[in-house]
Design a protein that fits this description.
Length: 406
């Protein structure tokens, strides 16, 4: 049957199912199965999405001896998984996120050797430039799940070459890790392919029912299905996205030359970062810190700025990041936000300006909880990290999901 005829037949059958109690994803799969019978692939598990959450599920499934097919609409991962700092911020997590982050840390380091990408156990330095920031760090050090070493200004500069004149001190979070996501994510995909995972690139998932995933190339049969499509969960399950409040968080980020070729082994966080992570949230001094920013620098809170940076082996600094939340974002880049980022990082480094090499917009799923795990039917899991901690937690979360499917 010609492609156009196939789609017309599928749409006709989808229309016939409207008004029934079947979920839209199941209705699409059932309609198409009658038009194009016979699977194009069979596996123990099919994963939708080749970002880090999807790949993490494939990794743990293969380790359990399952055969795996990964379906990805692009010909490489180009979403949130490669548009980030590559920072595993383990120490600043709490609850289930901390449990997942601990597991993920070990997986990142183990897979670096197996898949052949760079990874560093270099920790994180939090630079404090105000007394209330130091107060939060002292409180956090008393309750942190991993070692935290408090530092004076000299101790901070001994670890990272910051020249901010207002630097008072900080803390070193030794348990954090770093990777270059642009290298690590494709390396993991290649490693999985060598391990027997079949990738269907440039293939869109359209729905599922009764152990079958409908794709734009045909049906994949699998008793287990994981949909790890991140911020695009509303493309498959719009009612779910609406019910749980999943939207898209858009970020503005840049890569800049490191002034004078300075080297930074740890990631660098700042006082604004203390307002973002759950591990700091319970510190008694957090309300005063937020109030001070609201009074003295409200524009930083309006931009929802997490002022931080990392350095990859090429020497450039990845800096960021601003945050804006919406179901659909306008396609226009706000130069004022980039200028704000550049000015604040330059101030932290103690330099007049920075040379920009790249600019981009990041995006991730955001919701009221840290994770979205939805099970619409037996054997099917819709999984997303709905805060900006996907690189930190994905492997641990996937380990737990795969356990429940086997």
């Amino acid at each position: 049957m010609a492609r156009g005829g196939w789609w017309r037949g599928m749409l006709a059958r989808m229309s016939a199912t409207e008004g029934t109690t079947k979920p839209r994803a199941a209705a699409a799969a059932a309609a198409a199965a009658a038009v194009r019978p016979g699977p194009i692939e069979r596996a123990d598990l099919v994963v939708v999405g080749a970002g880090i959450v999807g790949l993490a599920h494939a990794v743990h499934a293969v380790e359990r001896g399952l055969s795996v097919v990964v379906v990805e609409r692009d010909d490489a991962a180009v979403g949130a998984s490669i548009r980030n700092f590559g920072h595993g911020c383990v120490t600043a997590q709490t609850g289930p996120a901390l449990r997942c982050a601990r597991r993920a840390r070990a997986d990142w380091l183990r897979l670096a050797g197996e898949a052949g990408y760079w990874a560093a156990e270099s920790g994180t330095v939090v630079a404090a430039r105000a007394e209330d920031e130091l107060a939060v760090l002292r409180e956090f050090a008393e309750r942190a799940p991993l070692p935290v070493r408090l530092l004076d200004a000299g101790g901070v500069r001994a670890l990272v070459p910051l020249d901010a004149p207002e630097l008072l001190g900080g803390a070193y979070l030794a348990g954090d890790v770093r990777v270059n996501p642009r290298e690590a994510v494709p390396a993991i995909a290649a490693h999985l392919a060598r391990s027997g995972v079949r990738f269907l690139w440039r293939t869109s998932a359209l729905g599922w029912a009764d152990g079958r995933l409908l794709t734009s190339r045909g049906t994949v049969e699998a008793p287990r299905i994981v949909a790890a499509v991140g911020h695009d969960v509303d493309r498959l399950l719009p009612e779910l996205a609406e019910d749980v409040g999943v939207r898209r968080c858009a970020l503005q980020m840049l890569r800049v030359d490191s002034p004078g070729g300075r080297r930074f082994a740890p990631a660098v966080l700042t006082g604004l970062s203390l307002l973002r992570y759950s591990g700091f949230a319970a510190c008694p001094s957090i309300p005063a810190l937020r109030a001070r920013f609201a009074a003295t620098a409200p524009h930083l809170l309006e931009a929802d700025l997490n002022l931080m940076f990392t350095q990859w082996p090429d020497g450039l600094l990845t800096i960021g990041d601003t945050h804006a939340r919406a179901v659909t974002h306008p396609p226009f880049h706000d130069e004022a936000l980039d200028s704000l980022l550049l000015a604040e990082i330059a101030r932290l480094l103690g330099v007049p300006s920075l040379a920009v090499r790249e600019r981009w917009r990041g995006v991730y799923a955001t919701g009221p909880e840290e994770f979205l795990v939805h099970r619409p039917e037996p054997g099917v899991a819709v999984v997303a990290v709905t805060t900006g901690i996907g690189m930190t937690t994905a492997f641990g979360l996937a380990h737990e999901i795969v356990e429940t499917l086997t």
